[in-house]
Each structure stands twice: as C-alpha cells, then as structure tokens.
Amino acid sequence: MSTEIADVATTVRSIHNPVLTGFHPDPSILRVGDDYYLATSTFEWYPGVRVHHSRDLVHWRALGGIITDRRLLDLRGCGDSNGVWAPDLTYHDGLFHLVYSDVASFASGYWDPQNYLVTAPDISGPWSDPVKLHSHGFDAAFFHDSDGSSWLLSMSADWRPGRDRFGGIEIQRYDREQRRLVGEARIIFRGTPAGLTEGPHVYRRDGWYWLVTAEGGTSWEHQVTVARSRHLLGPYLADPSGPLLTSVGRPDLRLQKAGHGCLVRTQHGDWYLAHLAARPYSPLGRCVLGRETAIQRVDWPTGQWPRIPGGVPADTVVAPGLPPHPWPDEPATDHFDTPDLAACWSTLRRPAGPDWLDLRTRPSHLRIQGGQSPVGKQSPSLVGRRVGAERCALETVVEFDPVDHRHLAGLTAYYNTLNWHYLYLSRADDGRRVLELLSCDRGRRTPYPELTVDVGDGARVGLRARFDGPVVRFSYDLGAGWRDLPVDLDATILSDEHAALVVDGEPAAWGFTGAFLGLWVQDLGGDGVYADFDEATYRQDDRPAGS
After folding, report:
1. Which residues form the Beta-xylosidase C-terminal Concanavalin A-like domain (predicted)?
2. CA 396 to chain centroid
3. Would the pTM count as exceeding 0.85?
4. Taken in order 7, 8, 10, 14, is the CA torsion positive or negative?
5. In whole angstroms, how far apart are CA 72 and each of 66, 102, 121, 153, 167?
C-alpha cells in the first residue's frame, strides 16, 4: 500500500473533532436508516435549528436550517443569546419531530421559555405549523417509548428567590393524535452535586431507561451525566463512577467545556456521543469560535454503564465501520447565482426574504436593503457566516452610494449587538465617499478617524476581514490591489467569555453563540438605500494561529 493510499484509509476511519466547527452548540444527533443528522442551537440567528447530514459520522454537509420563517418562530426583538436553545430531533411513525425552545429572557431567573413542536415527513420539510407545548423550562426533548407512547422532557425552571433555578428533569406525556400534552408533569431526576441539570435525553436499552443530562453549566465545569432506572418515571440513579464525559480539571485538553451530549446507535450496534465542546485560544482562555460539536465513541457492554475512554473528549476517534461517504467541498466563493442564500449563510433576527434581501433583480449580486443600527433588534440587515478556524478571512466586493452619514454598508467581524468590528462605506459631511472603521466593546464604541480612506467615485470597493488568532485585520481594494488598514483589532472580544456579563450575581448578558463574518448594511434614516455585494469568498486555515 502506498503512503498516499494509507493516508486516505486512515482519514476515512477516523473522526476528527470538532466535526462541526464554529458556533454549533447543543447537538441533537439522530439516525434514520443510513442517514445521520445533527441539529444545533441557533439563538438569535435564522434559519433556526441548523442541520447537518452524514452517512459515516466522519463527513458532514450543511443542509441549512429548519426554522426559515416567522410562521415557525418570530425573533423580532430577541435579545443577545436568547431565541432558539437546544433543539431535539427525533423520528417516529414516519415523521421527523423537532422540539425547540424559544427563550425570551434570563434575568433574575425568569427565562420565559416557550417550547414548540413541528413535524415533517422529510428532513427538508415541509414542516407543520408549530404546536405550543409548555413553558416549564428549556432544553425540551422527546422520547418515544416502545409501547408507542411519546413523552416530553425538559429541565424544570424555578424562578423563586432562594430556590434552585434548575429544579430537576421533568417529564410529561404527549398525545400525538390530539397534538397536546396530557396528564401530570413529574420530576424524575434532581441531578447530582454538579448542579445546573438540563439537556435531558432518554434511551431504552437492556431493560433499563437511561437518562443522559448536561450538568455543571455550559462553560468550564460542563459534563455529561448518565442515570438509569427500571421505570420511565424513575427513580433514576446516577452513575456512581461519575460523569460519562467532562473536561473539568484538564486545562491541557484541546477540547474544553465538554458536555450536553446525545447518543446515537449505528447500523452495526456501535454507540457514539455527539456533544458540545470549545477550543480556547489559551488554557481556559477565550473561545472566539464559540461552542462547537464533537463526537466520541462509547463503549456500552450489555447491562453495564456506558463509558468513554478516560471520560474525556478525544481529538481523534475511531469511526464506525461504514462505507466512506465524503461530500463535495463547499465552494470558497459564493457568486450569488442562486435564487436563495446558500446554506453557509445566516441572517440576524429576521428570516431571509424579499422584504430586505434580493438575489434576483441584479444577477450574480446580493442586494441588501439597509436596516437598523448595530443595536437594533427588530430589523437589522446582517448576512453572516460562522468563523470556523482561528485563521480565516472573508472578502467581498460592494457597490454602495450613500447619501449621508446615516447610510453604511460593509464588512463586519461580529459577535452580538455589544461586541463587533466594522469596516464600512459612508458619506462624509463634505460629500466625500469614505471608508471608515468602528469597533464596539461591551457597548463602548471606538472610532478610528485617522484611518479614514477617501474612496473617490469608483463604483466597486473590495473589502476583506481576516482573523489571525487573537487579532482581526481589515483590508480594502480600490482597484490597485489590497491595502491593509494599519491596526490590529482584538478578536477575543468576539468570544463567549467576553460577551458574558454578571452584575450583582445576576446575568446581565450571556455569550452562547460565536464569532461571525458578515455583510452589514444600515439605513438609519429610513431612506430606502441598499448595497449590492458581488460575490463573497471565505477561506480558512485549520492550523492553529502561530503554527
């Protein structure tokens, strides 16, 4: 066997973590026949509930999202890191069932979560109108028992001062014919001393009901806990050996925050766990890439507790003995030649639609109607894609004719309304069309007037944003080649850790998403301005910065 063939053989039988890079947290994994699906949280971004597809657990392709319109979810006014939390994807009686939580708040213990159910005969839809479930807590999930019954699980929230806000795991029966919850909701598991018990999934195997939960919070103390019972309604006994998976106490591990797991069984009876993980830029440092999805192999002998080697997340895992099934590579350049946005793009707080996005009027261009300011939460005009590596870049060409300072269009490195960097075209008071740079760090804006560039009357302006580890750099091209703006911007403000803010013991802001690179347009005067973007190219280098 040649070295080249040997390398290919090694690649196809190994899972390299994370399998979904960048902002892809809270995975729900599902197998239907020979197809595997991963559904992940999307928070304030459309389409809601991002889905990936695989045939071998090694190669994954993006299918886009399930929640594509306001009929299924309305995110107008949604706060940073609110919105769609921890979706759950199951399959029963020829239908896909998607349960998702729309969390409206997290202040003072008032999460205001509304749980919904939609169904479809195919993963691509069409999806039913949403069924309102309860608002008892978030991280809702379905369990379909072998007797044909269906059950809704969730964490049980308790708003009362002095009480544990994570009141345990709750279960209630769901009548599929009546499309409503029936009977009494019951607490079946109070959790372990790790606390913050959430993210429940139930499996039936070897005469036991196995309850998998997330505990310890979604940061450095995160873990996957397993408990079991002979009866669905409990009582459940946690594994006396401790968590199935965690990174706690191991700052040397590349994958941190390991938790929020979901199990899947292959066609050949092997078990794997999809779970949340993060890659800090330094030991227990900031995670600009957000929370990602990884997969671990699980050893689960009949009648015994499931085990992962060492109980820690591995970077490389033995893949199941399935035929290799790679997908075509995603094109580096989107020429905007299709009538709809490609699956790599997401939009902020409002679904992609003809009221503000246009891929038809001008062929091979994306026209974006100007929206609200960077702090606006009703109708922003931001089309972004996830940052998937420490070193990556997005470049585009924009045509934009602003009338005054209220009109802006350009390229952003973005985390949320309070944390971003922005290179944009606008109009100066003296009538010049100019390129300006603005940063926002926890709501405090920093302009760079000394870096203002007079772009003249040329129609087309090239813009580029580059992540290089902890640094973001912007460049522009007026037709004579790329020129860098001479400033290194802090990329780590675009991280979960920096976005989180606790005041007097209460969360004023959370960081649950990850960094984006995006095309952003503002029309602060409501004058009907728009910008045309002619192609966008994304490239990433998967080697760590500095290597």
Report:
1. 333-539
2. 24
3. yes
4. positive
5. 9, 11, 17, 21, 28
Neighbours of 461 (CB within 10 A): 23
| β partners of residue 516 | 386, 414
Name residue, tokens 């594509």.
68
The arrangement of strands across the sheet holding 131-132 comes to 83-92, 95-103, 113-120, 131-132
Please, which residues bridge with residue 396 across strands?
463, 536
Q: How far apart are CA 111 and CA 505, in angstroms?
A: 16
Rounded Cα distance, 172 and 56, in Å: 34
List CB contacts of 430: < 8 A, sequence separation 6 or more: none
Name beta bridge partners: 29.
38
In CATH terms, 19-318 corresponds, of 3.40.50.10540, 2.115.10.20, 2.50.20.20, 1.10.443.10, to 2.115.10.20
Q: How far apart are CA 401 and CA 399, in angstroms?
A: 7
* Three-state SS annotation for 383-410: EEEECCCCEEEEEEEEECCCCCCCEEEE
pLDDT at 227 over 70: yes
- For 499, phi then psi, to 5°, come to -70, -30
Please name the residue ranges forming H helices in 213-356. none
Percent of the chain with pLDDT over 70: 97
Rounded Cα distance between 517 and 346, Å, is 10
Give residue-wise pLDDT tens across range 133-179.
999 999 999 999 999 999 999 999 999 999 999 999 999 999 999 99
From first CA to last CA, the distance across the chain in angstroms is 31
Residue with tokens 């598991």: 189
Separation CA 70–CA 357 (nearest Å):
16
Q: Which residues are catalytic?
A: 26, 198
- Could you say which DSSP state residue 259 is in? E
